[in-house]
């Protein structure tokens, strides 16, 4: 395991072990539609506080019918996204996999839905047989990986022919150029790419009060400053980089072809 993976794993192990509140279900930056005429996503009252984060999953998956599908979320974190997909999109099975044992333990305790399971595992060495899934979802996780190329190879392996990778993630401006080139030259066909930086920035600003309240309630005051950057609250350097365009956010849909790689 690389030093990069070890660092991210240590952070998420601490968060999973020390912040055990089931209400903290999502860690993504969210998505806000910019078209005022767009019909709002219908959510159960219990899911309403997480609307911005859920809307990112809705955006990423809306063009693929998950009904009856076997779905894998790589980098499931605290399990909110896998739970949303299992409860709202009617897949046959939903499997969340994460490198953090503490996060997986939290998911197993608190995220329950038909066909929903959680597994500890490495995104670069997925613990599943070849051609196990129809759809792989990867939200705000690939920036933690030492090799996106190795991740794409594993996704290609576990996807069934014709299956989709639905991805969303952030990078600095130059690193985003590199990520897009990696996606285009990988083993999967790029079908859609969307720059959603403005949508993510809008979501952060609409959700700012809630994020700050969660930091106050659940994070020790001594480490508030680094967690403000981590959560991209208004006034943080991370939020400023989104506002200036130094940070970019992309969503993508890629498809595995019907023939095997040579």
TrEMBL record:
One of its GO terms (biological process) is methylation. One of its GO terms (molecular function) is methyltransferase activity. Keywords: Methyltransferase, Transferase. Pfam families: Methyltransf_11 (PF08241). InterPro entries: Erg6_SMT_methyltransf (IPR050447), Methyltransf_11 (IPR013216), SAM-dependent_MTases_sf (IPR029063). Coiled coil: none annotated. Transmembrane segments: none annotated. Residues 72-166 form the Methyltransferase type domain. This is Class I SAM-dependent methyltransferase.
């Amino acid at each position: 395991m690389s030093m990069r993976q070890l660092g991210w794993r240590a952070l998420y192990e601490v968060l999973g072990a020390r912040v055990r509140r089931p209400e903290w279900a999502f860690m993504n930056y969210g998505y806000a539609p910019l078209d005022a005429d767009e019909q709002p996503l219908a959510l159960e009252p219990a899911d309403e506080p997480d609307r911005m984060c859920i809307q990112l999953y809705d955006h990423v998956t809306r063009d693929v019918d998950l009904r009856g599908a076997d779905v894998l979320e790589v980098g499931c974190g605290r399990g909110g996204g896998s739970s949303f997909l299992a409860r709202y999109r009617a897949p046959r099975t939903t499997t969340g996999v994460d490198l953090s044992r503490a996060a997986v333990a939290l998911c197993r305790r608190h995220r329950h839905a038909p066909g929903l399971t959680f597994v500890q595992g490495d995104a670069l060495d997925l613990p599943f047989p070849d051609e196990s899934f129809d759809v792989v979802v990867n939200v705000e996780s690939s920036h933690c990986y030492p090799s996106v190329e190795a991740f794409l190879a594993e996704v290609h392996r576990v996807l069934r022919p014709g299956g989709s990778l639905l991805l969303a993630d952030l990078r600095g401006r130059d690193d985003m150029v590199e990520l897009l080139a990696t996606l285009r030259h990988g083993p999967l066909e790029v079908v859609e790419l969307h720059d959603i930086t403005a949508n993510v920035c809008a979501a952060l600003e609409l959700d700012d009060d809630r994020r700050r309240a969660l930091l106050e309630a659940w994070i020790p005051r001594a480490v508030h400053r680094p967690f403000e950057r981590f959560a991209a609250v208004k006034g943080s350097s991370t939020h400023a980089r989104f506002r200036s365009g130094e940070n970019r956010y992309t969503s993508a849909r890629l498809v595995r072809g019907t023939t095997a790689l040579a």
